[in-house]
Amino acid sequence: MWNIQNGHNLHRLQRVEEAEVTCLLPLRENTYLSVGWNRKIIVYDVTSAKKTLVPAGESWGGGHLHSEDILAADYCPSLGLLVTASYDGEIIVWNTDTQRVFVYLRRCPPGRRCAAPQASQMTARCTKESAQTPRPRTSGDCG
């Protein structure tokens, strides 16, 4: 991790496995998450400013549910939700307070027609100005 204003190396995050990292996100103050080809969510605590090498921290409490490489992730701080998406089309929405699954979305298998979402399924949008509350999703709603 570099300070872009002066070019100083602030932290070097410990590698967990020989796998590509596809995303690094700030979670909370002094806490970062990385995801990638190892299919895991790795937590780093950079609280100690004196350490340059930051060891990989605790395991993600929700386990490692992706069966393929995690290619993308995003975090909505106002809702406390983390979203991870893997190569096979699975999208998992996590509650960051409990580190448990909030919503698990799976891609429809080839050759099958998937049912329309139920009204009880929720979708949420995160904006910088304010978080919109989750609203019921209808069958014609594309998000």
How helical, in percent, are the residues?
under 10%
Q: What is the average of the pLDDT values?
A: 79
What would the principal axes of the Cα set say about the shape?
Answer: elongated
Largest sheet, described in full?
A: 4 strands, antiparallel
Q: Regions with pLDDT < 50 over 5+ consecutive residues?
A: 129-143
How much is the radius of gyration in Å? 17 Å
Separation, N- and C-terminal Cα atoms = 34 Å
The order of strands across the largest sheet is: 6-7-8-9
Number of helices: 0
Keywords: Repeat, WD repeat
WD repeats: 63-104
Pfam families: WD40
InterPro entries: WD-EF-hand_domain, WD40/YVTN_repeat-like_dom_sf, WD40_repeat_CS, WD40_repeat_dom_sf, WD40_rpt
List the helices and strands and how they pair.
Layout (H helix, E strand, L loop, with lengths): L11 E2 L7 E8 L2 E6 L5 E4 L7 E2 L15 E7 L4 E6 L4 E5 L4 E6 L16 E2 L11 E2 L7
Parallel strand pairs: 1-5
Antiparallel strand pairs: 2-3, 3-4, 6-7, 7-8, 8-9, 10-11
In short:
WD repeats lie at residues 63-104. The chain has strands at 12-13, 21-28, 31-36, 42-45, 53-54, 70-76, 81-86, 91-95, 100-105, 122-123, 135-136.
Labels describing this entry:
mainly beta, disordered C terminus, four-stranded antiparallel sheet, 143 residues, three-stranded antiparallel sheet, 35% strand, elongated
